[in-house]
Amino acid sequence: MKYFLKSVLVVAWGLLIANSCKSKEDALPAPTTEGRNTFGCKINGKVWIANGVTNEQGPSAKPIEVEFRQLSTNTFYLFIHTNANTKDRVQLSLPAGKIGSNILTNRYNEPFGIYYDNQFRLFNSMEANPGKVVITRLDTINRIVSGTFEFDAQFIVNKEITRITEGRFDIDMDTL
């Protein structure tokens, strides 16, 4: 009995260690609101992080690019374009965004999301199955914007769907 108990404890300890040694590449950035300049999501269930650029994207391309303008006391323009070393990209656009939930459609004068795959095929968020961007922090003094997002995007040519889930970003606009 003593041998059996020791064996169970050794196996449990080994499983615990093995489970805690997951690669950081398999993990999304934490959903923070501190301006850590992170942007990640799952694309069709696979972790995707805005982590780099390739030479084909030009010398001025960055992992995360942001454009922000305050429109009124309650609304703002926010454009986030991201790049990964896998040559695919995610883009979020809130032409009249607000703190809280912003529904994504496929109209360019309203909030929308875009996914460009590594063949530069364009997948647009869909009005029939709208996604959302939730702004969890907007600090116009310290210029930090944080939030979560999800949307299904459709390739217009063959109606192929790409699912963007568990998205999160935490951006300090002054330190990009």
Written overview of the protein:
The protein has 176 residues and is mainly β. The protein has one domain (24-172). The chain contains one helix and eleven strands. Strands 1, 2, 3, 4, 5, 6, 7, 8, 9, 10 and 11 form an eleven-stranded antiparallel beta sheet that branches. The longest helix is centred in the first third of the chain and has 19 residues, at 2-20. The N and C termini lie far apart (60 Å).
Question: Which helices and strands occur, and which strands form pairs?
Answer:
Blueprint: H1 2-20, E1 38-43, E2 46-49, E3 64-70, E4 76-83, E5 89-97, E6 100-104, E7 112-116, E8 122-125, E9 131-139, E10 144-155, E11 161-172
Antiparallel strand pairs: 1-2, 1-11, 3-4, 4-5, 5-7, 6-9, 7-8, 8-10, 9-10, 10-11
What tags apply to this protein structure?
176 residues; mainly beta
Number of helices: 1
**Classification by helices and strands:** mainly beta
How many structural domains does the protein architecture include? Answer: 1
Using the CA coordinates, give the radius of gyration.
20 Å
Query: What is the succession of H and E elements?
Result: HEEEEEEEEEEE
- Gap between N and C termini: 60 Å
Taking pLDDT < 50 over at least 5 consecutive residues as the criterion, the unreliable ranges are 7-23
Mean pLDDT: 86
Determine the fraction of residues in helical runs and give it as a percent range. Answer: 10-25%
**What best-fitting shape do the alpha-carbon axes yield?**
globular
Number of distinct beta strands: 11
Strand content: over 45%
Major sheet summary line: 11 strands, antiparallel
